[in-house]
Design goal:
Length: about 240
C-alpha cells in the first residue's frame, strides 16, 4: 500500500494572477502482511456420485460465513492494535452517564482536536453497551447532542453509529493492563484489502485412493491503517 509522507494542502491565495500556493506532495510505500484463513475437509465422494447440489451449496455457505466472521475478528483486532490508546480514571468520568457515552464523547473531541474531522462510528464492548440500553433514548440523544454540539436529531442524520462488539475484542495489550472498551473512529482512517472481492477461493481435489474429495477454501486479507489519530480506543476506567 501507500501513504502520504507529505500531504498536499491549500493555502491563502491573493488572486489576480498572483502565484498559486504550491507545496510539496509526497507519498511513500507501506508494506502490509496479509493474514490468511483456510479450511478443508475430506468428504465422502457419495455427495458427488449421487448429485447433491444442496449439500455443496450448504457446505460453501457455511465456509463463507465462517470466513466472514473470522475475517471481521482479524480486522477488528488489527485496527484496535493500531489505534491511539487512552487510559482513563474513574475521576475523569461524568456522574450519571453510562461510561461508554462519556468515552464516545471524549473520543470525538480527541479526533476533532487532532484532525478537525468528525468521527462516524464507535465500537462498544457489550458490557459497556448494555447500560446504554437501559438509559432512556431521549436522555442518550440529549446528552450526545449537547456534548457534540449537535441540534436534536442530528446524531442520526450524521450517521454516527454505535456498534456493539464482544467483550475482549478491543483489548490489545494485557501486559499493560489496557482493557479496551470503546473505540471511536473514522472509516477513512482504515482500508481493508481482500483478494477476490471478499469471497474465499474454493478448491476441490479428488482423493481416489480413499474414495473421497478434498474440499476447502482459502482467504487473504490485509489492513492498511492510514491514520492512528483517526482511531481512539479507551480502556475500562479504574480507581486512581
Amino acid at each position: 500500500g501507500w501513504k502520504w509522507k507529505t500531504r498536499p494542502e491549500v493555502d491563502d491565495y491573493a488572486g489576480n494572477k498572483t502565484a498559486v500556493p504550491s507545496g510539496a506532495a509526497e507519498t511513500e510505500s507501506v508494506a502490509i502482511d496479509a493474514y490468511r484463513l483456510a479450511g478443508a475437509h475430506d468428504i465422502d465422494r457419495k455427495f458427488i456420485d449421487f448429485s447433491s447440489p444442496e449439500f455443496w451449496k450448504a457446505y460453501y455457505e457455511a465456509m463463507t460465513e465462517s470466513t466472514a466472521k473470522k475475517s471481521d475478528v482479524k480486522v477488528r483486532g488489527l485496527v484496535a492494535a493500531a489505534a491511539t490508546r487512552v487510559h482513563l480514571l474513574d475521576a475523569a468520568m461524568p456522574d450519571g452517564i453510562p461510561a461508554a457515552l462519556a468515552m464516545v464523547v471524549k473520543g470525538i473531541v480527541k479526533v476533532m482536536d487532532t484532525l478537525e474531522v468528525l468521527p462516524d462510528h464507535a465500537l462498544v464492548t457489550t458490557d459497556y453497551w448494555e447500560p446504554i440500553l437501559y438509559t432512556k433514548e431521549q436522555d442518550v440523544l440529549a446528552y450526545l447532542d449537547a456534548a457534540m454540539g449537535f441540534k436534536e436529531g442530528t446524531l442520526a442524520k450524521r450517521q454516527f453509529k454505535l456498534i456493539p462488539v464482544p467483550v475482549g475484542s478491543l483489548t490489545v495489550d494485557l501486559v499493560t493492563d489496557f482493557v479496551g472498551k470503546v473505540m471511536v473512529g473514522c472509516h477513512d482512517a482504515v482500508t481493508v484489502h481482500e483478494l477476490g472481492g471478499g469471497a474465499p477461493i474454493r478448491v476441490e481435489a479428488p482423493n481416489i485412493a480413499l474414495g473421497g474429495v478434498d474440499s476447502g477454501v482459502f482467504y487473504y486479507g490485509a489492513v492498511n491503517v492510514h491514520s492512528a489519530d483517526g482511531l481512539v480506543i479507551y480502556d475500562a476506567p479504574t480507581e486512581a
